[in-house]
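YM 10:42: S1 motif domain-containing protein sequence, as discussed on the call
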Amino acid sequence: MVIRQRGERTQIAVLEDDVLVEHYVTQASATSFAGNVYLGRVQNVLPSMEAAFVDIGKGATRSSTPAR
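YM 10:58: structure's back
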């Protein structure tokens, strides 16, 4: 994992055998739910999309897909 921070911007790169497999970019001023842990209730599951829609009590339902 490689982490680079400049000013309010943070980049995280995940490498497997020196190949980039995931890349995340965040701004300090932006609100993000990604990467956080929440208690929620599953509202719907779509097996064909490998996705679940979870109510986390923030006024909207979020989707979740398996990590690759």
